[in-house]
Automatic annotation (TrEMBL):
InterPro entries: Topo_IA, Topo_IA_2, Topo_IA_AS, Topo_IA_cen, Topo_IA_cen_sub1, Topo_IA_cen_sub2, Topo_IA_cen_sub3, Topo_IA_core_domain. Residues 829-846 have a biased composition (Basic residues). It catalyses: ATP-independent breakage of single-stranded DNA, followed by passage and rejoining. The keyword Endoplasmic reticulum does not apply. This is DNA topoisomerase. Belongs to the type IA topoisomerase family. The lineage of its organism: Eukaryota, Metazoa, Chordata, Craniata, Vertebrata.
Amino acid sequence: MKTVLMVAEKPSLAQSIAKILSKGNCTSRKGLNGACSVLEYTGSFQGQTVRFKMTSVCGHVMSLDFIGKYNNWDKVDPAELFSQAPTEKKEANPKLNMVKFLQVGLRAIDPVFYILSHNIDGYSSLASQVLDAIQPVMNKGSVREQSVYRAKFSSITDTDIWNAMNRLGEPNRNEALSVDARQELDLRIGCAFTRFQTKYFQGKYGNLDSSLISFGPCQTPTLGFCVERHDKIQSFKPETYWVIQAKVFKGKDSPLTLDWHRVRVFDREVGQMFVNLAKTSREAQVESVSKKEKAKQRPQALNTVEMLRVASSALGMGPQHTMQIAERLYTQGYISYPRTETTHYPENFDLKGALKQQINNCIWAEEVKALLSTGLNRPRKGTDAGDHPPITPMRAASEAELGSDGWRLYEYITRHFIATVSQDCMYLQTTIDFKIGTEAFSCSGKTLVSAGYTALMPWQGIPLEEAMPTCEHGDTYTVDEIKLVEKQTSPPDYLTEAELITLMEKHGIGTDASIPVHINNICQRNYVTVENGRKLKPTNLGIVLVHGYYKTDAELVLPTIRSAVEKQLNLIALGKANFQQVLQHTLDIFKRKFHYFVDSIPSMDELMEVSFSPIAATGKPLSRCGKCHRFMKYIQAKPSRLHCSHCDETYSLPQNGAIKLYKELRCPLDDFELVLWTSGARGKSYPLCPYCFSNPPFRDMKKGMGCNECTHPSCQHSLNSYGIGQCVECESGVLVLDPTSGPKWRMACNKCNVVVHFFEHAHRVQVAQESCDACDASLVAVDFNKTRTPLPAGETQHTGCVFCDPVFQNLVELKHATMRHPRGGGARRGGRGRGRGRRGNPKKPKDKMAALAAYFV
DNA sequence: GCAAGGTC
């Protein structure tokens, strides 16, 4: 029997499609990467009985990046990223081993396979990436491109999937190319601008509150929306206006407040004139009474962006958090797939079944029972984007099993679902038109007829109002009060997250899956902060950036920046434009924009100067520069660094910790004063030389290394002086004595988070020259306090191996990990001669200076 | 350390 391979774009799709095509009769097993399943069944293909093997990829197989050397920010001019810098495709998620998984899957089949997908983007990335991945296998002749088919469907329903199978198409290289082009454009443009502006502003200002000043075709317009609203608020000038306030009554009824038909006037004199005209009459005549029954429509089925909007505005949950919760609810089987643009239930969707699941939940049991007995209302027609069915509850749940936020989101999704099959909300709108003198007024009110779906979504309900009086044309009311009231227009408020989502959706910025990411980005980069009511308030940095773009090249921040490029890309997909030409043309435009931006940066700088202080004026003196021997300033704002204003040089420092001066000791290589880095929580610390940290002195050292990784053969602060032995957990780390840790002495791995506590109440701990015969670790000499020594017979001094010495063993306590190191006379084990740390280099250098020279780059 | 896009 022949075997046909089918590849869907994600595991959930493979599952549901295999279920449909096999009519529920398929076997399922996990693939070698643990994420994708392989589903098998027997069926018919082109008139033959064949074995179908259905599997999937898991998002994109490949992603694009620059080749290694172009990722060095210091050595590459960002302008080179537009053309010179070569890119390469890398496996998007190496852990999944997708390429190997596909190749193995393919080897076992006969030369036919399908690619299944619902949208162009998904399809193209899938098709081209799968084809690329299996190219080596294809060349061996087992599969030719002609035997690759594409099944394109617009919804995951029996009919649609079967139709797709019966009308197989061919992969479309153009669509794939258009996706490739977008990827390359986003990468080159985004990275070039990000690197340039980050480096430029970071080198100039000391109190920028962001370590990365990013730019991107989605995130920047997203920020633009927030700043646009900020500008409206700032430039808002309140205007005074006047309204006529009129109250009338009839008999003993309570008075009615009327709305003026002219609404308002901006001139007091004019307003007064109208009041005078109205005051000519003491009575209000009822001109007409209208009563209309109106409907408030039940909601459409729920898609992702609507869920995100409501979660933000009503539940106070941010989009990123909401998606995490939704993902969890989905994998636990409580709700359907949470990423969808579709607001239309598939034809065969079992609405009743889904509703029945909810019959025992006391919150909505009554409504559910009523619906099941009277019949479900037909859901409103929505749009079918062809991706996944709308978001619906899949099984009953309780607050206890879901946890607070999980339950709140589930509750909303369920209420929304029930609402979609409920009746519309019906109400009566009554409007009474009055005339007082020459002026027309009216008053209107809504009375609930039937709550319909608002019983489940009470926040959308008709507010209870005082009933409208019964009256008819010709009735007369007495004027109780009529006066001119002065009011002021008020500014708009900051953009809410929900409004931002709407704007992004409208302008095609991001997708259902990426909108939360972009919003999260502008928060993390400190461009906006989330205020009460999930309103997004731009920071100084965010405002200055956007104003700067407006000043130099507004297109960089306008939402059209994306749509213009999209148009070009679309031409590639349609085969009307050439991939290379569009890519070159667009890159050319943006390269010019980039150079113009670089040239105009001084005008953006004028804005920065107002909000931020120059680096030389920031920070406090901390340690001495090795070149000019003047004090350098420590700039605490992220990214924390040292700045020598005399040399005009900036030296980076390790982040997320505190920096202190380290006993005024100096690095023997460059004379810079050492500083001590201390992490807060873990209590790990090590000294470092500010110069070596950015400019590694030896060939086996990399940027960002402290003295605890320094291979200097003789320096008293180096790994060679304080290194004790191999890390007990990680492969390449060395446990290094922390010379500042006393009196509770400890050693810490110079690569991972392992910290080993050893001697308490010791006033001196030293790493000896000798090493342990059993495990090769350096011996440690300890001097305990006389009164609190743990040594037998009140001894105060002892030298031994911390791992093997019977006296020391019990004093060693490993934190964050379990001990794997051989203890007490155990056999020798790995590490010897692996070239690690001090003990990996068994021969001690005879001539220290010669060794030193050999080390230099 | 950069983009945006999928998904786990």
